[in-house]
Amino acid sequence: MNEKKLSLSQLLNLASQYASNKLILPSQALFGASDGKAVGTYVEQGLRDYITAQGFSAGNGSSANGLDFPDLNIDLKVTSLRQPQSSCPFKFAKQKVYGLGYSLLVFVYNKVDIQAEEKSWLDIQHIVHVASEKTADYQLTKSLIEMLSADGNRDDVFALLSEKNLPLDEIGLNQLADEIMQSPPVQGYLTISNALQWRLQYTRIIEKAGVVEGINSVYRGNSK
Length: 224
Description:
Blueprint: H1 8-20, H2 36-53, E1 74-80, E2 85-88, H3 95-98, E3 103-114, E4 119-130, H4 138-149, H5 154-163, H6 170-182, E5 191-193, E6 198-201, H7 203-208, E7 215-220
Parallel strand pairs: 1-3
Antiparallel strand pairs: 2-6, 3-4, 4-7, 5-6
Helix pairs in contact: 1-2, 4-5, 5-6
């Protein structure tokens, strides 16, 4: 059987179906699991199986660019409602200013262990699609936009970047300041913390889903 090529709208629709049809049933595999990686693998594989069952090609995650759906330039993130965050590969410091370079499909779950059955129920609370251009850091882009709108100059931009402790040397900070003056950033909505890997926090995109253009509420469950 020839599998149909997956479009963005089809991926979002299938992701919503996957959550709303309660296809994530109580699982022994997740009972007692406290690490998000196990849950993330479980959800990703379940979604891929569901996509394939509907006659579409789910594709394979790309080891070259680290994306789960490289044909659509989308990475899948699965995170707990209790602490909605995850890590992602650090590529360039300017990702914090101009975005990650790809879109995100964020599954936010609440996991409940059923002790008597030694199984876990995984309740998907939100699915949010964040367009690539909205994946920069909220506070940094907000500060830069406000500074530039108030006639801030290159020295002001350089000083702000220095204060934010971006992982760049002085030459890199100067180059980034020049780029910002030539191409001002747009407002991002992630919180991106400096680390060996970027630490992405999703509370704001959950709040803004369906309110801000480019942050699409794909699915909203019954919050508990």
